[in-house]
Write a structure and sequence with these properties.
557 residues; single chain; alpha/beta; FAD/NAD(P)-binding domain; Helicase, Ruva Protein, domain 3; D-Amino Acid Oxidase, Chain A, domain 2; 9-stranded mixed β-sheet
């Protein structure tokens, strides 16, 4: 069974009727990783997500699977080593959603980055992170630095360092992991909230009561164990359990802005420190745009809808104009923006950027397992950590035995392309194959690059869709049908934000085609009038939030 929206009722029936080894609360990258690991070991897995998959932190990151250079500055050697290793695994298992990106680290007189310390730091980083030989750092002269990125501030420039990070589509990474988990037997559903825990006669958690957020109906899901992997909502979910520890989260907000390359013609990715507070900022070219982030401020407002404020946007504009003085961008040049919250484990007295991105597993007296903290790059390792514990508890309490973790060598959905080294050859082969479907090279290349080994499914849809009369371009129509049939898309925002990233990187497509997209989805999913109106309003609100600065205080008033 694929992750088809058209099979939602069948999925709900299964969740109601069957007993699971584990039910996972949270459909971000952590929950998806746990679902894949547990199902691959032979466990019977259920997963619920109250919003769309990846709608929280997992679609709102800097979109880098990075090795953690910033952690080196904080002497978190173990974190750098682990994230470096994991980064390589994530790339190998899904090269269609992860791309090596050569990063430039400019050094200016008076900045926190000296030539010697940067060289030593990058060498150590390469060693710890196990960086491939061809991707190791190289130090650059002033002239070489400017050649790589002519927009860089030349005043007091001493040179630069070049090293490799990995750019990803965080939401697509999450959905591809989720699809593979489903292929391995997991039963997963979005827009479904865990509202209560259920308990046995010994006061041990034995499942949840779930609510379908689209219809309002509630039902119980029975399970031997429950894992809380709800990211920023970890504390709220735990508050429904009688057995709690005194650990808690501290949320910080990160904002990114997107500017068209006609206004900010960035050639290559740059990692630089800001003028006033010395924080490090990424500027990254992507799909004809440049996106810049991130801010790092404490946040205690609406977790489901963190917003970019005028102050956030100005901070990043100032950072751009400081490092790229000839660009001269202003707020009016921002096409889109997004804000996300990082669920960090509370460390009293620390500045937001100093709080560790470590993860922790907590086990309550009730048997509830919670995983908190962590970062995108480490999702597979985090999943292994908590599923190892889950496996141990199921063996102790139920005499059940499961396989060891094998996710190091399991490709995610779309990742069967013959490994990262073969990905370019795979794309060329697929572009050639597409000719038999009468699909032009540009569209075929887009499908093969973005969907990897699932591209064939899109070719088949596109072949029959060439004569559709919806007014939608072939690529958008094909992706929409595919995402409904295979990626559990129900709302227009599911499609335009998390499955395609168009709201961030191709906002013109959203503005031009949003009404037609709603009409097609209505035809396929048979919305009620109330649903259709609500989803239209939700999309218009999302567009407004992306385009404008919002008056959202950091603390709920």
């Amino acid at each position: 069974m694929s992750l088809s929206t058209l099979k939602r009722e069948q999925v709900k029936t299964r969740l109601r009727d069957e007993e699971y080894d584990v039910v996972i609360i949270g459909g971000g990258i952590t929950g998806a990783g746990i679902a894949l690991d547990a199902s691959q070991r032979g466990m019977k897995v259920a997963l619920v997500e109250m919003q769309d998959f990846a709608q929280g932190t997992s679609s709102r990151s800097t979109k880098l699977v990075h090795g953690g250079l910033r952690y080196l500055k904080q002497f978190q050697i173990g974190v750098v080593a682990e994230t470096g290793r994991e980064r390589a695994i994530v790339y190998e298992n899904g090269p269609h959603v992860t791309t090596p990106e050569r990063m430039l680290l400019p050094m200016h007189k008076g900045s926190s980055l000296g030539k010697f310390s940067t060289s030593i730091g990058l060498t150590l980083y390469d060693f710890l992170a196990g960086v491939k030989k061809e991707e190791r750092k190289n130090m650059l002269s002033k002239k070489e630095t400017v050649e790589r990125e002519p927009l860089i501030k030349r005043d007091k420039l001493k040179g630069g360092g070049a090293y490799v990070e990995y750019r990803t589509d965080d939401a697509r990474l999450t959905i591809e992991v989720m699809k593979r988990a489903e292929e391995k037997g997991a039963t997963v559903i979005n827009h479904t909230k865990s509202i209560h825990f259920t308990y046995d006669s010994n006061e041990k958690v034995n499942g949840i009561q779930a609510q379908d957020m689209l219809t309002g109906e509630t039902y119980d899901i029975r399970a031997k164990k429950v894992i809380n992997a709800s990211g920023p909502w970890v504390d709220e979910v735990r508050s429904g359990d009688y057995a709690r520890n005194n650990k808690q989260l501290r949320l910080t907000k990160g904002v990114h802005i997107v500017i068209d390359q006609s206004r900010f013609p960035l050639r290559q990715a740059v990692y630089f420190d800001t003028e006033n507070d010395g924080r490090m900022i990424f500027a990254i070219p992507r799909e004809g745009k440049a996106y810049v982030g991130t801010t790092d401020t404490f946040y205690d407002n609406d977790k489901s809808s963190p917003l970019a404020t005028p102050e956030d946007r100005q901070y990043l504009i100032d950072a751009i104009n400081y490092m790229f003085p000839d660009v001269d961008v202003s707020d009016s040049d921002i096409e889109s923006s997004w804000a996300g919250v990082r669920p960090l484990i509370l460390e009293e007295g620390k500045d937001p950027s100093e709080i560790s991105r470590k993860d922790e597993v907590w086990e309550g007296k009730s048997g509830l397992l919670t995983i908190a903290g962590g970062k995108l790059t480490g999702y597979r390792h985090m999943a292994k950590e908590i599923v190892d514990l889950l496996s141990k508890r199921l063996k102790q309490e139920y005499k059940m035995k499961f396989k060891k973790c094998e996710t190091k060598h399991i490709t995610i959905s779309g990742g069967d392309v013959g490994g990262s080294d073969n990905f370019e050859n795979f794309i060329e082969r697929k572009v050639e194959d597409a000719k038999a479907y009468q699909i032009d090279d540009k569209v075929a290349r887009h499908f093969a690059t973005k969907y990897g080994s699932n591209a064939e499914d899109l070719f088949e849809i596109a072949q029959t869709a060439q004569y559709q009369e919806t007014g939608l371009p072939l690529d958008i129509y094909t992706e929409l049908v595919y995402s409904i049939q295979n990626e559990m898309v129900y709302k227009p925002t599911d499609f335009l934000i998390r499955r395609t990233g168009k709201l961030y990187f191709k906002i013109d497509d959203v503005l031009n085609y949003k009404d037609k997209i709603v009409e097609v989805m209505d035809g396929l999913l048979d919305y009620t009038t109330a649903e259709k109106d609500a989803f239209k309003a939700e999309l218009d609100e999302a567009i407004d939030e992306a385009q404008t600065g919002n008056n959202q205080p950091p603390v709920k008033e």
